[in-house]
Amino acid sequence: MQTYVPTRRTRFFHKMVLLDQRILLAVRSLERDWLTPAMLTLTKLGDTSTYFAVGLVLLAVGSPLTLRCGALLGTSAIVASLIAAGIKYLFRRERPLVTLPDFSALVSIPDRYSFPSGHTATAFAVAVSLSMEGVFLGPLLLASAFGIGSSRIYLGAHYPLDVIVGAVLGSCMGLLTRFALLGLFF
Fold it and tell me: Structural domain tally of the chain?
């Protein structure tokens, strides 16, 4: 009978999963009564409904700048959400509350899979696509995207790696949307 010997790659991925779990648990140990409502607010800012409402307001104002910002926001949010959802379906990584014993999330979980974070991908896509539209807008939106991603870890909805990959994916989608949309229409 042949004995299973883990490969170098298998050992690496196992170590990454353990590190991801340790970081998540360390972040959750920071839980405070005053911090949880702030994190819940940040995570709500990253909901699709929030981007939809803001996009509608921008389009309703109707000035050339708000139309441009509304188009960038809407397109980058949709693209990032769809790509993140597709990747989630491919990888099917279970959320922390499923894989970690005695772990509970501090927020309702929108779907079964966690990799990558859709909230984070969308937040970074919107932030990057709109970051060059105003002097203060870029830093404000990027700080907001970072806060949204951090809230997903703190609230136990995602592992840190889910959020990191969501941020990278979202940033790429934001750049792609910005250059594609502006090249075609503006």
Answer: 1
